[in-house]
Design brief:
This protein has a single domain (4-178, 212-228), classed as Vaccinia Virus protein VP39 (Rossmann fold), CATH 3.40.50. The chain has nine helices and ten strands. It has helices spanning 4-7, 12-24, 42-49, 62-75, 127-140, 157-166, 183-186, 191-196, 222-228, and strands at residues 32-36, 54-59, 81-85, 98-103, 108-109, 121-122, 141-152, 169-181, 201-204, 207-219. α2 runs parallel beside α3 and α3 (42-49) runs parallel beside α4 (62-75). The chain starts with a helix and ends with a helix. Bound molecules: S-adenosylmethionine (SAM). S-adenosylmethionine binds next to α2, α3 and β2.
Length: 229
C-alpha cells in the first residue's frame, strides 16, 4: 500500500462530491475538467469515467500530485492529463476554460495555528480559500460550465451565495446532509463564528451537528441576471 494512501484518503465530503458529479455530469459537455486541490485524484478518475476528454488537477502538495498521477495512469490512462503543482489557480493559464470544476478545499473555520492544524482545516472564518475560488470562476468556467464544491455551513451559506452573486454566479444546493462535529473540532471554532452559525448548528446536549452540502455554481442565466439587476 503506498505511504500516501492514508493521508490522501477520500473523506465523506469527497464521497458526496463524487456522488454529485456522477448524478449531474452525465449528458454534459466534458471537454476539459479541473479539480482544484486534486488530492488522491479520485474525482478526476470519476470524471474520466464519465467521458471527460482532458483531466486537469492542481495541488500544492507534491505527494498528492504523485498519487493522482499513479491513479490516473491506471484508471484513465487514455485521457490526457495535466497535474500541476501550485497555489489554487496560479498554475492554470488564463486562456484555459473548464466545463466542470470540482473543489473540496480546506475550509473548516478553526482558530488553530497553521503548524498544529489538520490539513482539512483553515484559519479564521474559513472563507479565504472559498472566496478565492469563487472570485476566479467567471474567468475559468466555460459559458455553460459548472463548479461543484463542498461546503460546511459554518463558513456561512449566506456569505457564499451573496459572494457568488456579486460575481454574477448562482449557487444551488445539489446535495445536503447533516454532519456530527465532535468537540475537538467545534472547540476550535471561534465564539463569533458559532454565534453567526445558529441557523446551521443544532445541539442535542453536548452533541453538535452542522449542515454540509455540495453547491453547484454557474453563471447566472439571462433570466436571473434580469432578476438580479
Ligand atoms: C480535502 S483535500 C481534497 C482532495 C480531493 N479533491 C478529495 O476530494 O478527496 C484538499 C486538497 O487541497 C490541497 N490544497 C490545499 N491548499 C491548496 C492550495 N492553496 N492550492 C492547491 N491545492 C491546495 C491539499 O493539498 C489537498 O490535497
Amino acid at each position: 500500500m503506498p505511504a500516501y494512501f492514508h493521508d490522501l484518503r477520500p473523506s465523506l465530503y469527497t464521497t458526496a462530491l463524487l456522488r454529485a458529479i456522477q448524478e449531474h455530469c452525465p449528458g454534459r459537455r466534458l471537454r476539459s475538467v479541473l479539480d482544484v486541490g486534486v488530492g488522491s485524484g479520485v474525482l478526476l478518475a470519476a470524471l474520466g469515467q464519465l467521458g471527460a476528454q482532458e483531466l486537469w488537477g492542481v495541488d500544492i502538495n507534491p505527494e498528492a500530485l504523485s498519487a493522482a498521477e499513479h491513479l490516473l495512469s491506471e484508471h484513465s490512462s487514455h485521457t490526457p492529463r495535466h497535474l500541476l503543482r501550485g497555489d489554487m489557480w496560479a498554475p492554470i493559464a488564463p486562456e484555459q476554460h473548464f466545463d466542470v470544476i470540482v473543489a473540496n478545499l480546506p475550509h473548516f473555520p478553526a482558530h488553530v495555528d497553521a503548524i498544529d492544524r489538520p490539513k482539512t482545516w483553515t484559519g479564521g472564518d474559513g472563507r479565504k480559500m472559498i472566496d478565492r475560488f469563487i472570485e476566479a470562476l467567471p474567468l475559468k468556467l466555460t459559458q455553460d460550465g459548472t463548479a461543484f464544491i463542498t461546503h460546511n455551513d459554518l463558513v456561512g451559506l449566506k456569505h457564499t451565495t451573496e459572494y457568488a452573486d456579486s460575481y454574477g454566479l448562482d449557487c444551488e444546493t445539489v446535495t445536503q446532509w447533516t454532519v456530527f462535529e465532535p468537540p475537538e473540532r467545534l472547540g476550535a471554532v471561534s465564539a463569533q463564528t458559532i454565534a453567526t452559525s445558529s441557523d446551521s448548528l443544532q445541539y442535542f446536549g453536548g452533541y453538535a451537528f452542522v449542515e454540509a452540502r455540495i453547491l453547484a455554481i454557474q453563471r447566472k442565466s439571462d433570466r436571473n441576471m434580469t432578476k438580479a439587476t
